[in-house]
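for the writeup, i need someone to sanity check this before i put it in the appendix. the sequnce is what the collaborator sent (i think, or maybe the updated version? ugh). structure was predicted straight from it, no edits. if anything looks off just tell me and ill rerun, i have time this weekend
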Amino acid sequence: MLTRWVFIRSAESLFGDLAVLLFLCAQAGDGVLTYVGLAVFGLQAEANPILASLMAAVGAGPALAGVKLMAGSLGIALHLFGAHRLLAVLTLFYFGAALVPWTALLWLGLR
């Protein structure tokens, strides 16, 4: 039942516009917090081993920019396909799994 609710397509709506806007804000916020976290704690602070390897290979800035542009593009594609509920669920997950931990780590580390 939950999968049907999440994956159902819907027409253009204010909800869909807000979902994609919040998703893009979450991506931008995570990019900024990740970059600040790397400046404060170093590359070992990145928990994603694939992203950490990419950062070691091409640098933190280009790696973050590329990954965030890709994620944002995929979010916009979900919006254009009408998968607004899925986009909203991904946004909520992203806030809890990326933004809250980085904020807490930086808050505790900079105190």
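The chain has a mean pLDDT of 90. Helices lie at 2-7, 14-41, 49-58, 60-80, 84-109.
thx in advance!!
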